[in-house]
Structures are given as C-alpha cells and as structure tokens.
Design brief:
The chain contains 13 helices and 15 strands. The protein is of the alpha/beta class and 448 residues long. The strands form 2 sheets. The protein has an 8-stranded mixed sheet with strand order 1-9-11-10-12-15-13-14, with helices on both faces. The longest helix is centred in the last third of the chain and has 19 residues, at 427-445. The structure holds ligand BES and zinc ion. Residues 276-277, 308-309, 311-312, 337-338, 383, 385-386, 402, 411 line the site of ligand BES. Keywords: Signal. Residues 243-438 form the Peptidase M28 domain.
Length: 448
C-alpha cells in the first residue's frame, strides 16, 4: 500500500518534470493517453489536475455572482444562469436536456403605515392572501402571541406579535382564534433583514415578518396612536425553474453504469450566491470541460439544478425523471455545494452523507486525495441539506462536498447573506475542489 502510493507520487512528479502535463489548454484526450496506462492512477489524475483551470472557475463564479447576481428560483436571473450553463455545456459537445418544472407559489406583498411609510417585510410561503386592494386595519399589540395575550379588541385588527417562545404557527393560530384579520411577526434579535418565517403549511391569515426595530417602531407610531397599516399579500403562481442535464455515454458499452455530478445554481434572495453555489456550479462546469473527450466506460451526467434553496426542488425533479432502470444503473452522485469559500476557518472539505457512512464516492475521494496530495483534511460527516438528499433517497450512493470548519462543522459567516460575494471565494480552494472531485470522478468513470 505504502509502496504503491510512493510509486504513484513519483510518477506524477516525473510527469511534471518532463513537461508531459505542460500542454496547451485544450489538447483533448490523446496527448496524455500514453502516459495514462492501466495501473498508473497517478497518470490519470494528471490528465485532470493539469487541466483544471482555477482562473476559468473563478471567472465563472464572478459572472454568476456579480454580472448575474442573486439567482432566486423562478426569476429571470436564475433563467439567465441556466442559459449560460446550457450554452457552455453545448459548446463542450455534451448532449443537453433542459428540464423545466413548476415551483410552489411564492408569496409577495408589501406593508405600509397610514403615513405612507414602507416597512420592509417578508411574506412566508403558506401565508394567506389579502384582498386585491390590501387589508387596511389597526394594529393589535399581542405580545408573544399566547392565547391570553388576545382580548376582544383583537377582532378585525392585525396582530403584531414578537418572535420567541411559541412557534410561528401557534402565534398565527392564536391570532386567528381571536378573530384577528392578519399577523405581523417582528424579530426578537437584531438581524440585518426581516426574518424568513417558516410557518409549516397553509395559514388561515395573511402573515408578514419584519425586523425587530420595525416592530418597535410600529408599536410606538401606530399602536400607540391608533393608526392603521395596509398589508398586501399575494401568491405568485405558475412560476417555473429549470435543470440543465449534460450527458455523455461511453462508446460500445450497453446499459452502462451512471454517475451523476450535481450542483445547484440558484441562490437565496439578496445573496449573490458566490460561495453558495456559484463555486460548485463553476467547478462542476470545469470538470465537465476537462472530461469532455476522455475515454470513459460509464455514463456521466452533469445535473445543474435550479430551485435548491426552496427545498431541493430541482434535484427532486431530476431524480423523479429517472426510470427504474436508470436508477438501478446509477452508482454514484458527486454533489458540489459551497466548495470554495475563502473563510479561513473552513480548512476542511466535508463529505456529507445522509447516513454518515462511507460509500463509493467518499472512497474514491479519499483515494484521490492520497494520490494527488489534496492539502485539506477530508471529513466524513452525517448531514443532508443539499441535493445529495434526493439521490440518496432514490438509493444512489451520494455525497455533498462542502467546505467547513473542522470540529464545529460551521459554515462561513457570509452564508445566505448579501456578503456571499466573490471577495470571500478562494481561487486556490476552487482548484483544490476541482482537482479532488475531478480525479475521484474520473477514477470511477474512466476506461481502463
Ligand atoms: N448550500 C447549502 C448547503 C448546506 C449544506 C447548508 C449542509 C447547510 C448544511 C444549501 O444550499 C442550503 O442552504 N440548504 C438549506 C436546506 C434546503 C433544503 C433549503 C439549509 O441548510 O438551510
Ligand atoms: Zn447551497
């Protein structure tokens, strides 16, 4: 074991020295084919790592996060990202399938005081709607929203409730039971934006979430003076998102095994989504470019999915389109989500699996790390929260590659904020992820 590792390292070093890998960028499969003889895994790795171009990945991260910006599911920006990905993969010669799918209704709206002041608010999915002209009513100070916090005076008013102690759902149900016409929940801690409320299913009333300072201002300016607010909440219906699937099948192999690489290209509202997940998207695109013409004996599918941030919707759709036969031929999913943060504490590459157990993907990555000398620690960890969940649930061995702080498993502080910009993305770590996942993937799909 030790010996072969040493031999592998020596070989890759000598390849580097002899200049075999110092080829112009796009030489395709032939030039290194000779060096990459069976039994020389390090030479196969060189076919990947000599060509993974960190600058190209970084410039795609910049395009997605800065030129396009936030790419919320269902928006024109998400579609623009999908077009870019599609054009790129077409230019690499992959067979492309565009999957368009519906996404759940999204609530939109606004909140204003009778003085005409706009209050920044969020409107949770599952909220009730208001009449078209909006709901104009007095506010009722309902404290934390316990049943006892409501009197008859709440009837027909909009209940203003502080976050905390009770679930959002209980607060809303208590307001409804008291005959309130709507609910505004204000935060109980200082956050830069209004809270995203998760209210668990359809609510009987229109609901808005606002910042703590906004709630306190309403108590002072509206409740105390007997003024009114106008709340408007509508469902945005019929929205769609897309997946872009790029496939390459091996020559002369019938019913090949299938390996899926996935990355989501959507983001949360207001976040440029540089780390989450322009990094995974751009790295997967680069791996697709490098692999476009190498001989393989398994089918590879790059699934660039939308609508991850609203509940893994794109990958659920993709996996649901696989036939039973395709699922049974599927042997692995490499999911890349947040692979390039520059946050200094995130020194480890986590391999998240749903059961916390190793599988073909973690094994391939560990072997690749050993051969190519990936500097970061690889940590096997039990965690969902990304698109690998849907592959796992279909019975396909799946891993989410994600950078975190070792020990705490913390994500960078810019996660899901407007600060998730390219400023906090590391070109060096993008290269590390591309080399590692590219080499591991190639070790699984290549023709020996
Ligand atoms: N990029 C994150 C990935 C992630 C993985 C976050 C593991 C935390 C842990 C992903 O896009 C995300 O934010 N996921 C959501 C869940 C999803 C079902 C909406 C999350 O973790 O809140
Ligand atoms: Zn993500």
């Amino acid at each position: 074991m030790k010996k072969s590792r040493f031999a592998a390292l020596t070989l890759s070093a000598s390849l580097l020295l002899s200049g075999v890998v110092m080829m112009p960028a796009d030489f395709g499969g032939q030039a290194t084919a000779e060096a990459a003889k069976p039994g020389n895994p390090a030479a196969f790795d060189q076919k990947i790592i000599s060509r993974i171009d960190a600058e190209r990945i970084y410039s795609d991260v910049r395009y997605l996060s800065e030129t396009i910006g936030p790419r919320v599911a269902g928006t024109a920006e998400e579609r623009e990202a999908a077009s870019l990905i599609r054009e790129r993969l077409e230019s690499y010669g992959y067979q492309i399938e565009v999957q368009e799918f519906s996404i759940p209704d999204k609530m939109v709206g606004h909140l204003a005081t009778s003085n005409g002041d706009e209050v920044k608010a969020t409107f949770p999915s599952g909220s009730g709607e208001t009449p078209e002209k909006g709901l104009t009513a007095q506010l009722y100070d309902a404290g934390l929203g316990y049943p006892d916090d409501f009197t008859e005076a709440a009837e027909g008013k909009i209940a203003l409730i502080s976050r905390g102690e009770l679930s959002f759902r209980d607060k809303i149900d208590n307001a409804a039971a008291a005959g309130a016409a709507g609910v505004i929940i204000y935060d109980n801690s200082e956050a830069s934006g209004p809270p995203n409320l998760s209210i668990g299913g359809d609510a009987p009333l229109p609901v808005a979430g606002i910042k703590k300072v906004s709630g306190e201002a309403l108590l002072e300016d509206v409740v105390a003076t007997g003024g009114t607010v106008t709340l408007k909440v509508d469902a945005l219906t019929g929205q769609t998102s897309q997946n872009i699937i790029a496939t390459r099948a091996p020559k002369n192999v019938s019913n090949p095994d299938i390996v899926h690489v996935s990355a989501h290209f959507d983001s949360v509202p207001l976040a440029p989504g540089a780390s989450d997940n322009a990094t995974g998207t751009s790295t997967a695109l680069e791996i697709a470019r490098v692999l476009k013409s190498y001989p393989i004996d398994k089918e590879v599918r790059f699934a660039f999915v939308g609508a991850e941030e609203i509940g893994l919707v794109g990958s659920a759709h993709y996996v649901s389109t696989l036939t039973e036969d395709e699922v049974s031929r599927s042997i692995a999913n490499f999911n890349m989500d947040m692979v390039g943060t520059a946050w200094e504490n995130a020194t480890a590459i986590y391999m998240n699996t749903l059961d916390g157990l190793p599988n073909i993907v973690t094994e391939a990555a560990l072997s690749a790390q050993e051969r190519i000398g990936t500097p970061s620690e690889l940590v096997l960890y039990k965690r969902g929260s990304s698109d690998h969940v849907n592959f796992h649930e279909a019975g396909i061995p799946a891993v989410n590659f994600i950078r975190r702080e070792p020990g705490t498993a913390a994500l960078e502080p810019y996660y899901h904020t407007p600060q998730d910009t390219i400023e906090f993305v590391s070109q060096e770590r993008l290269k590390e992820a591309g080399d590692l996942v590219g080499s591991a993937l190639y070790s699984v799909i290549r023709k020996n």
